[in-house]
Amino acid sequence: MPISCWSSSPAIYALHQRQHCRRQDDQRWLTGYIRLVVAGFLNSFIRHADVLKIANLAQIVNVIAPLMTRGDELLVQSIFYPFEMYSRRRAGVSLRPVVQGPSFESRANGLAQLIDASAILNQSQLNVFLTNRSPDEPAIVQISVEDCPIVSFDSAELVTGPDAQAANSFRTP
Hints:
The protein contains two helices and eight strands. The N terminus is likely disordered. The protein has 173 residues and is α+β, with helices and mostly antiparallel strands. The protein is globular. The chain has one domain. The strands form three sheets. A four-stranded mixed beta sheet has the order 1-8-7-4, covered by helices on one side.
């Protein structure tokens, strides 16, 4: 079954805590932290698909977008990759995974799992999306389905970066 794993090294930072840059060529706030936030939102949307019927990205190009343009130049932001990864595996029925493992105390929401997860069953394919919220520890993950054995592993993807502050810009794409 295809398993998609999204991982990053940073702790969670909310979008509103990041300072928006005024200059289009200086998008340093779109860092690895923001990739983690994007994956968290996407996991939440999938887990709540029973009540959430549509979610939109307001800025598709420029401002705070996955794709930035300047003249003929195109800059692929770090947040593009989670959107791409999830969008290719979006069809099917949303499942609510049970996550057991290490947790941490968040400032705003109390106890939270270090591994954030969502899953989509598309006929006989299970797509699992995982986010490691730990700032410095890798995570070993075991996936099992209660009423159906997993008979094969098709593929996996990993999105990561050199550090949590890594960001693309027109100067350093």
